[in-house]
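Format notes (please read before filing issues)

Several people have asked whether sequences and structure tokens are stored in separate files. They are not. Every record keeps both together, in the order shown below: the sequence lines, then the token lines. Line labels are part of the format and must not be stripped during preprocessing.
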Amino acid sequence: MNYKQCLFFVAKCLTLDQHPERIQEVKTEINKNTVNWENIVKLSSGQFVLPALYLQLKRNGLLPDLPEDLVEYLEEITDLNRKRNLAILEQVKEITSILHAQHISPVFLKGVAHVLAGLYVDIAERMIGDIDFLVPEDKMVEAADLLIKQGYVPLVEYKPEMFSELKHFPRLQNFKKPAAVEIHKEVLNPGYQKLFRGFEILQDKQPVVTIQNQAFIPSVSNMIIHNVFNAQINDKAYYYDDILLRQMYDLCLLSLKADIIETAKIFGKKFNIFNTYFAVIAYVFSNPKRIIYQKTLRADFYIKKINFFLSHASVHQFIRTIKYLLWRFFRYITIPILSIFQKNTRKLLYYRLRDPKWYGAHFRSYRKMG
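Then the structure lines:
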């Protein structure tokens, strides 16, 4: 199985709960002994959907068709992720208590929000990186200071000049806790924040009953909007033509709770960012019932482009690298120019050029792209 075949197989498995008619299709493919499980595990791990894949196969009675040692491995990984997620939920409750004591109510985002919303049959399905939460912008630094007093350490030193340049406080890590923390005042990268503001999420937040109504999550429609923009803009999937299975799987589940195309229509000229994302999810996941998109020329072209890149991975990687270098080159030119006219940009540039850690992180980004 090549990468494209593995991707479509994994995506089909992730739809089994919604499409039980596909169980026999997957079973037949497995029993043909053509499934390259090593490649499947590698892809699923890289896309952060390995526990979700295992649990879909388990719930739909397909584990007896898998190699016994593979089942044991998948079960172990999923159990570890379940334990980690349970520990993260305890960390979430603790953070909420610390902030609520000072009249700050966090609105949890992304993976944590989805788990708190009961999006998954089993909380082990979602692999969570950081704990992301949103607070009013005038509370971001105060919330960070409260956590720092409780043993959290900023991985990058915060400077007041950073405030307007960041969507969240530098990542905080308590090395006794399972997850790092990112405290947001906005959810989109600078330059795009007018599309979807943090205060819009705060205005339409929903209480989390299991945390005594002291913590909140976004409304379903705002979780859909954040999912799309986070994948397409923050993670640059739209720019790099990337497939992000974890985010796409989340949207498949969110689509069961709201009409995604009606949500997308709110954004007018940016509708294409939503529509092409829905189109590629429909393509990769074999048209799940609730993933609807408008069949436009742009959507059709985007699917064809994705299909070409999936069939020609080396070409895709070459173009991604060129795009990345062009973006870096653009930044190298614009930031020094802006620093001439903007005091905060000038100070930030000065701090970065004096920080050895920044150079390390900067050069690692090139290796990661390579």
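For reference, the curators noted about this record: The chain has 17 helices and seven strands. The first strand starts at residue 107 and ends at 108.
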